[in-house]
Design brief:
The protein contains 12 helices and 13 strands. The chain has 307 residues and is α/β, with parallel strands linked by helices. It folds into 2 domains: 133 residues, Rossmann fold, CATH 3.40.50; 116 residues, Nitrogenase molybdenum iron protein domain (Rossmann fold, 3-Layer(aba) Sandwich), CATH 3.40.50. The strands form 4 sheets. The protein has a 4-stranded parallel β-sheet, with helices on both faces. Strands 10-7-12-13 form a 4-stranded parallel β-sheet. A 3-stranded antiparallel β-sheet has the order 8-9-11. Helix 4 links the parallel strand 5 and strand 6.
Amino acid sequence: MKSLFKNAAYFLLILAILSCAGKQERELPSGAALIDDLGNRVSIDSIPGRIISLAPNLTEIIFDLGAGDKLAGNTLYCNYPPEARNVEKVGDLLTVDFEKILSLKPDLIFITVEGNRKETFDKFKSLGLKVFVSNPRNYEGVKKSYLDIARILGREKYAAEKIEIWDALLDSIRSKSRKYNPKTAMLPVELKPIMLAGKNTFLNEFLELCGLENIADDSSINYPVFNREEILKRNPDYIIILSDGKLKTGDLLELYPEWKDLKAVRNGNVIFVDRDLYSRPGPRFAEAAADLFNRLHPEESLRYPER
């Protein structure tokens, strides 16, 4: 079996890094501040002991950094890792229970730009709550959010080492993908209407990393809507479907019977992937990229380091 890592010593180092999360915290300098993704200066006087996350990707980051025990609250959609389901729920992405949040006495609340409403942010500020806004739109944005939150939680060294692992894995995927002839693909984010991930989305990065050419890369819209005729015209080699595990190719053909003539369907190249794994710009980004590469090239058996 082929592995990303060339020698056992390096692999053992990686396992050591992954096992160190949460073992040490570095106190922040007095009066330290970070600039969030809205450009706001957020003062962090000490490592927060009680935090709230209002987005699944941010919850994943917090747990990945070994700080899940600091979570006083999160959302109904925060379901990974499994421990996240046991955290007190304070609403969904758009509807927030402000009274419950106040009762939890958080030191800091993490929210996102796309997942949460401006009214929610404004309400928090009016209540005197400290808020940090994250807006990862691509892999570089994921790394920034990961590092920002790590600095706040005193896990900066661990985060930097973890990102080195991600970068090495993605470099390997790029390198291995160059060996294969380019193929075209489409990645719908919705099926009715047919809304595809465009070239300026983090979902498109998965395609690019794996050497696939996005059939929607000529659109300036992040998530363009295509008509049925245009899909037939562009005729992708692969169709990547975000799924909760229930969809089958037959379900797609019930919606669009003409897809039976697409190369992807004729050649059995419809790939169903975990919606949560792929659609959350968080610490599983590299894992999702490796998953797609292995689906495309199972003979390679590229491995992601175990947590």
